[in-house]
Amino acid sequence: MGSNELQEKDATRTLGHDLSNGSSSNLEAARRLAKRLYHLDRFKRSDVAKHLGKNNEFSKLVAEEYLKFFDFTGMTLDYSLRSFFKAFSLIGETQERERVLIHFSSRYYQCNPNTISSQDGVHCLTCAMMLLNTDLHGHNIGKKMTCQEFIANLQGMNDGKDFPKGLLKALYNSIKNEKLEWAVDEEEKKKSHSDGMDEKDNGSQTKAVSRIGNSNNPFLDIPHDPNAAVYKTGFLARKIHADMDGKKTPRGKRGWKTFYAVLKGTVLYLQKDEYKPEKALSEEDLKNAVSVHHALASKATDYEKKPNVLKLKTADWRVLLFQAQSQEEMQTWINKINCVAAVFSAPPFPAAIGSQKKFSRPLLPATTTKLSQDEQLKSHEAKLKQISTELAEHRSYPPDKKLKGKEVDDYKLKDHYLEFEKNRYEIYVGLLKEGVKELLSGGENDTPGLKKSHSSPSLNQESPVSAKVKRNVSERKDYRPETPSIKQKVT
Q1: Rounded CA gap, 234 and 360, in Å?
Q2: pLDDT attached to residue 92
Q3: What does the alpha-carbon distance between residue 112 and residue 279 come to, in Å, rounded to a whole number?
Q4: Buried (b) or exposed (e) across 97-107, using 16+ Cβ within 10 A?
Q5: Which of 42, 29, 43 is nearest to 89 (CA)?
Q6: Which among 331, 349, 333 has a CA at the least distance from the CA of 341?
Q7: Which of 12, 128, 8, 103 is nearest to 49 (CA)?
């Protein structure tokens, strides 16, 4: 319908003025565009977020005017968010989506200044609901988040205070009973329906795509691309050591299991049978899949029971051990996983509030980065510099000996997080400097590059691990992340 050309004309006329002085012409142009976006006047639902989420003064004016069409007065936060999502499709890059949600939070606070203490508090709860939505309704390995865990995760995040428990319980039950969804264009509906029919005719592929490719959360969706490149395949034995947030995996679920591993795109698929490109993935295969976005693989130097074991720590702080068939294979897997994570991980999402007492990790989006190779390297270098500075400042103010146990634990948790992130970005930067194409499709010599992967390798299918594993006392201890002073042994 030429909507992009029309918007560009509006933007060109507007940007010809001084945007910083807030002139009436800028405001009028923003109002006209906002009205057209709201009424979908020669715009599609998928166009709206693109114009609201741009990082310039004119787009901010447009977003403010657009939100004025919504009156959230007297409405609950969850109902307001659902109403907001009915108007458009929340698509686009992670940063653009985040800006849209910030505008929503600002408008909700304007309409309900006495419900939640600050705009930051509204935004924190909005992000928390988005995360909860993915946890309860999206692809998730392990148990779903409980209401108690949801409340605990938000302790101290209401400008240093706690949110009312009644409010958090209501938000939790709302998301649990009905998942968050947003509107889509009519042609997208038809396309999805058509794609679904085709997949259904092909067997179980419909379930496979919906299991991995959940679109309910714009930040943490695990990409499932059937046409993604295959970077590495081979047999691996897996042991789940820690579940989400580093919680020790229950004893009955920690045994070794052998899989045929396929690193395809940014997902490590763990299959029962050898990889066949034309074969659809089973529900069990998808359940075992692991997204390697923002992950870090390393040699499990603190695991001594078996040889050739690597440790994979994921974005949500799960810890998995993998045993390869040889030391060379182990190193190849480490390099491939880290390289994929370095090349394709989208820039991290900043924490919602900077004044909270309780430490909270920022969001690490599973979407693939839109940055070029040079931009990705610069992004990682900037993040490495930021983390290094923050770690130095953190360690310059150790906790007082009189502080309570929880505060000390929180200090250690943040210390471990910063040290881990510093190490992760150092490795990412090093890999990108070696050259992206060379690392992902290098020759057979894997030093320092990466081995070339094959779609259908001929490998020995013998399991690299024994059927039974003896447990020792250390395995019964609760998992705690390593700190600079206390490094626990992985079992």
Answers
A1: 36
A2: 73
A3: 53
A4: bbbbbbbbbbb
A5: 43
A6: 333
A7: 103
| Domain boundaries of the chain, sorted by first residue | 373-438
CA distance 448 to 435: 11
Residues of the chain below pLDDT 70:
1-24, 138-143, 185-226, 278, 349-360, 436-439, 441-491
- Rounded distance between C-alpha atoms, residue 468 and residue 59, angstroms: 61
- Of 312, 49, 5, which is closest to residue 183 (Cα–Cα)? 49
- What does the DSSP 8-state code read for residue 297? E
Q: Provide the sign of the torsion angle of the four alpha carbons 430, 436, 441, 444, taken in this order.
A: negative
Residue 398, exposed/middle/buried by CB under 10 A (0-12, 13-18, 19+)? exposed
- In Å, how far are 244, 292, 347, 360, 365 from 316, measured between CA atoms? 6, 10, 15, 12, 10
d(CA 27, CA 29): 5
Structure tokens of 47?
């166009």
| Residues in a beta bridge with 230 | 264
pTM of the model: 0.55
pLDDT of residue 272: 83
Burial class (CB in 10 A: 0-12, 13-18, 19+), 273: exposed
Rounded to whole angstroms, how far apart are CA atoms 461 and 272? 11
Output the pLDDT for position 359: 67
Q: Which amino acid appears at position 252 of this protein?
A: G
User: What strands lie across the sheet with 290-291, from one edge to the other?
Assistant: 290-291, 267-271, 257-264, 230-242, 319-323, 309-313, 296-299
**What is the C-alpha to C-alpha distance for residues 65 and 17, in angstroms, rounded to an integer?**
19
What whole-number distance in Å separates Cα of residue 10 and Cα of residue 23? 15
Check: CB of residue 282 under 8 Å from CB of residue 251.
no
Identify the bridge partners of residue 312 per DSSP, sorted by sequence position: 297, 320
User: Is there a contact between 219 and 350 (Cβ–Cβ < 8 Å)?
Assistant: no
Tell me which amino acid residue 402 is: K
Task: For residue 249, count other CB atoms closer than 10 A to its CB.
Answer: 18
131: its two tokens: 């995360």
Which residues are CB-contacts of 270 (< 8 A; sequence separation ≥ 6)? 236, 238, 259, 260, 261, 285, 288, 289, 290
Indicate the helix (H) or strand (E) that contains 336: helix 327-344
Q: Among residues 375, 350, 436, which one has the least CA distance to residue 94?
A: 350
Percent helix, strand, coil in the chain, to 5, is 45, 10, 45
Distance (Å) of CA 111 to CA 53, 70, 104, 478: 21, 9, 11, 45
The count of residues in the chain is 491
Q: What burial class does residue 21 get, using C-beta atoms within 10 Å of its C-beta: 0-12 exposed, 13-18 middle, 19+ buried?
A: exposed
